[in-house]
Every structure is written in C-alpha cells, then in structure tokens.
Amino acid sequence: DFLFALDLYRHWGDESGAAYNPYVYKLYGEVREAEWSFLFTVTGVTFVVSLAWALAEIFRESRTNVGSVKSDVENYVEGLTAHVLCGLW
Prior knowledge:
Elements: H1 2-10, H2 22-28, H3 33-58, H4 72-88
C-alpha cells in the first residue's frame, strides 16, 4: 500500500496517475504536502532504526548458558525509540 501511495505522490503534478481511477484521486486529493513529507520522513526513520536494531542483534556478543547480555542503557534506548516511533505513527 505504501508503494502505491509513493507512486501516486511521485505523479501528483498531473492527474494522469489517477485518470483511470477517480476514487483514488478523490481519496488522496485532500492530503497536504506536509502530510506526505511527514509520512515519508517517519517511514525513512523507522527503516533506519529497524536496520540498526537488526544489525545490533546480529552482531551481539552471545554467551552459552548466560542470560541476556544486553545492558540496561541499550534496553532504555530501544524502549525510548520504540515509544517515539509509535507516537509518530
């Protein structure tokens, strides 16, 4: 769905992208430029943060028969960024 919205945004200057589907043009016609920019920014930030989390988990030091080796600071930062991203979405 997001790629559909992105394609519609890219071809927003002319109505050719929505010529065959007037419902789509009506649906997205009232979305302001600032809302599109905010959506793309939040999507980009979410992708970068999730990539960083995935890489951190992949390269995390692991020890056999030991509990979590995550520090409290890492848990706090992950929780804070998750709350901020949820608030933005």
